[in-house]
Amino acid sequence: MDERTILLVEDNPDDEALTLRALSKNNILNEVVVTRDGVEALDYLFGTGTYEGRDTSRQPELILLDLKLPRLDGLEVLKRLRADDRTRLQPVVILTTSNEERDIISSYELGANSYIRKPVDFNQFIEAVGQLGLYWLVINQPPPEARGT
Questions:
Q1: pLDDT digit string (tens) for 6-33?
Q2: Among 75, 91, 110, 149, which residue has the fewest nearby CB atoms (within 10 Å)?
C-alpha cells in the first residue's frame, strides 16, 4: 500500500501539518506530495512547470483538494482534471472548511468523489482522515485507467 501516493493540495500550513499528522496517527504511511495552490497541483499532475519531466504515468491514488486556493481555486482544478482524459477518473476528495451549499453542489457537479468539511476538533479530524485512508486506499477499487495502466 505504501507505493500509492496521495496528493494533498493545501495552502494553509496549519491545515497541511494537521492533515499529515492525522495520516500518520492513522498509520497511513503512503507518500504524500503537497502542492500549495491550484497551478502547482495541475503542474504536478500533468508534468508541467516546476514538475516538467515528471513521470505522469504514476499518478496519485487519491487527491485531497482544498477549495480556497491561491492562483487557481479548487473548483477550477477539479474542472480541469475532469476535462482531461489522463485525470478524469482520478479519485478527488474535497477536503475544505467551506460548508457553503453552492461549494458542495459545484464540487459534485464537477465530478468530486466526496466532499468532506474539515472538522474543527482535532480528534474528529483524525478519525475522518483515518476513514478516508481506509476507504480510498484500501477498500475502494479504482478503475484501471485512474492508475495509468
A1: 999 999 999 999 899 999 999 988 999 9
A2: 149
Angle formed by the axes of helices 74-83 and 101-109, nearest 10°: 10
The Cα–Cα gap between 132 and 148 comes to 22
Count: domains in the chain: 1
Q: Containing domain of residue 77, as a range? A: 6-140
Sheet containing 6-9: order of strands:
32-35, 6-9, 62-65, 92-96, 114-117
Domain with 16 in it: what CATH number?
3.40.50.2300
DSSP 47: T
Q: What is the pLDDT of residues 52-107, one digit of tens each?
A: 999 998 899 999 999 999 999 999 999 999 999 999 999 999 999 888 999 999 99
